[in-house]
Each structure stands twice: as C-alpha cells, then as structure tokens.
Amino acid sequence: MALLRKINRVLLMLLILMAVALLYSKTFKARPPANHPDLDHQAPGRAVEGGAESEVETDIPVVICASEERVGAAMATINSVYSNTQANVFFYIVTLRDAIKLIRQYIEKTKLKEIRYKILEFNPMVLKGKVKPESPRPDLLHPLNFVRFYLPLLAISNHQKIVYLDDDVIVQGDIKELYNIKLEPGHAAAFASDCDLPSTHEMVRSVGMQTTYMGFLDYRKQEVRELGINPSDCSFNPGVFVADVEEWKKQKITKQLEKWMSKNFKENLYSSAMAGGVATPPMLIVFHDKYTTIDPKWHVRHLGWSPDTRYAESFLQKAKLLHWNGHFKPWDYPCVHLDLWEKWFIPDPSGKFSLVRPEI
Questions:
Q1: pLDDT of amino acid 41
Q2: pLDDT at position 208, please?
C-alpha cells in the first residue's frame, strides 16, 4: 500500500508539472520576444473577409478606403469602376473595425453583390508617433487617409501593380486603361501632375488652390530648404495613382514616408492647415522627380474645391476620372457637378449613409 501511495504521489506531481508547462506555453511562448520584428513594426492591415471568389494574378487590383461615415462614397466609386469595364477587377476595400459589418451589408444587399472583393482591416496603431491628433480639418487626419503609404504591406495577394483610388472619385473610363500605364524604369508610382491641365489652371487660380510645393511644405524650415526642391515645382495629387509593388518594396517607399511623417510630428515641417493636410507632403517629398505622369484625362480634379466654380460640361464628359478633392463633397451640399456623381450612387440599405440635399 505504501508503494502504491508513493506511485500515486509521483503521478500527481507529473500531472501538475504538465499542466504548469502547458499554461506557460500558452501564456508566453505564443507571444514573440520583445525584439521580434512583429512587435517592432506592427502589421498595417489584415484580411477579415471577402466575396465568394478569391483573387488571381491576372486581376486588376483596385484599393479603395471606406470609412464608416463615408461608406456610400466608396460604394459609388466601386460602382463606377465596375460598371465601366469588362476587365476582371478585384477590389480591396480597406476600413477600420467599426465599419466592416456595414460594408459587407452594403455590398451583399445591393447590385454590388456581383463584385469580387476582400475587406481589409487597417491597423491605426502603425501611425502612433507619426501623426499629430489636432487639425483644423479632422477629416485629413483620419487613419484611412494614410493607407496609401502601406499598400505593399497590406494583406494583398501578389500583384505586379496596384491602382489606388480615393473615395471621392468617379471613374468614367475603363480602369484597365489606367492600370496598363507603363511606368518608367526606377519609378514606383504614377501620378497626375498639378500643372498638367491648362483648363485646370484658370479655374484653380480663381479659387486660390496651390499647384506647387510652396503650398504644401514650410520653406521657413531649414530641413525643408535642404531638400533642394524648388518651391515653384509642380506638385501632384496622391488621391489617384498606380503603384509598382516590387519597385515600391525595393526602394523602401513605406519607410521613407514614415520617416517624413515622424519628422513632421517632431518638427512641424508642414501643417494640416496647408493645402494638402499631412498625408500629401510626405509623398511629394519621397516621389519628387521620381514618378511617371498619368494622362490628364485620368485625373480631372479640384471639383470639390469651390461650390461655385464649374468646369465646362463638354470637358467633363471626355474625362476618364473625376475627383472631388477639397472641402465640398458630392454627397454633401453645396457642391458642383452633382449629377455626374449621383449617377453612380447606390442608396445605403441600412439607411446610415444619406445624401445632404437642399429642401425644395
């Protein structure tokens, strides 16, 4: 009996040791060490769900951000892209956690249920220590405004190129044409120059919109002057662009952009009170003289800069892409050329997103 009790005690001790070891493994070993790269640089995004079909290498990947408060705008952009092409387009819809369910319902309960897509959840913690919380225009500091910096690091399948579109865009042409643009050797992206449309210049000057680096960088700061960028150089709008994924990775574009975000956080090299907030200047610095130019018809912009200044309708009909960048958005009021945007708007089945229109 004494021997049996001794054996039982030994077995009991072994069971206790095994339980402690298992608990330790779950608590500590599943967590990477303090110097693990996953903790040093948090993943900017993860896939949370998608449609019935997965993406393939031959797809045209289009990235669009959809915030909860502007979800109807993003759906209008997606609708315009999908309706004007026969190409196989795959949409990567980037959002924050609070809007995932709303986006899924918006797609599944409308004509957009036919699109192929994946919803990606963006991790705003990657912006910690890089973006100041205060701004006269809070919309410019929304975390999704910085998704464009992290495109190759998102949960996106292998694609040679990616098309990025802001949510205040309507596509009137075939997106395949924009995607097929040939980037020059050594260029990681293609943008539209702010000095590329003569008809734009007259309208832009009339409302005081800046088209040069002077409108985005604070040239009183020594570090800005040391960049050697002429303040009269033409700027570009990063709301529409085509990115070469491998070249972006090769040049470590994301790290360069983060560097200038961090510098501004500490030294205030540019201000959100200036023309393009705090998301545009880092791209202007990193891509200065290092980008391929997009056909002007593929980025007709400034439609949201003034509620009174309009383009000629004949000119807009020929445009391949319209961009209501600026304060006056087409889902709000007042705004110009509302009919060209409303054509692609799909009412929110949940009723949360609604248009602001004058009472008749």
A1: 46
A2: 53
Name 119's Cβ contacts closer than 8 Å, sequence gap at least 6: 47, 48, 49, 50, 93, 95, 100, 103, 104
Question: Cα separation of 303 and 310, whole Å?
Answer: 8
Residues 103, 93: contact at Cβ < 8 Å?
yes
4: left (phi over 0), alpha (psi -120 to 50) or beta: alpha
pLDDT of residue 39: 30
**E strand residue ranges, the chain:** 45-50, 60-65, 89-95, 116-122, 161-165, 169-171, 189-193, 236-244, 292-293, 321-323
Distance from C-alpha of 252 to C-alpha of 249, rounded to nearest angstrom: 5
User: Which residues of the chain register pLDDT less than 50?
Assistant: 20, 23-41, 272-273
Assign 116 to helix, strand or coil. strand
CA gap 180, 196 in Å, rounded = 20
* CA gap 38, 31 in Å, rounded: 10
Q: Which pLDDT does position 29 carry in this prediction?
A: 32
CB distance 234 to 212 below 8 Å? yes
Q: How far apart are CA 2 and CA 251, in angstroms?
A: 73
pLDDT score of 228:
97
Please report the pLDDT score of residue 63 as a whole number.
Answer: 98
